[in-house]
Amino acid sequence: xxxxxxxxxxxxxxxxxxxxxxxxxxxxxxxxxxxxxxxxxxxxxxxxxxxxxxxxxxxxxxxxxxxxxxxxxxxxxxxxxxxxxxxxxxxxxxxxxxxxxxxxxxxxxxxxx
Length: 113
What we know:
- By secondary structure, the chain is mainly α.
- It has helices spanning about 5-40, 55-65, 75-80, 85-90, 105-110, and strands at about 45-50, 95-100.
- Helices cover about 60% and strands about 10% of the residues.
- A two-stranded antiparallel sheet has the order 1-2.
């Protein structure tokens, strides 16, 4: 085996290694987002959320994160915007009982009742 072939093999191996690591990270991120979005896996627990005045979506998503209902507030905001429910959440005033294993859909339903 000559020197050039050896360099090409090392280069190919390093590129394949980097691609494999990126694939693993992408899969982990996808699983995390899907779990939060659909509420697949999570410790069940009741959370009482009180909103005393109309609040913007960013603050509501952070309140949900702090209470353990949502793990990814940015993804939650994207979901709410895609479902065109921003006004619903931002105009909400009152108290909700939520579960930490709720999907995003179930959270929006709770806000609408």
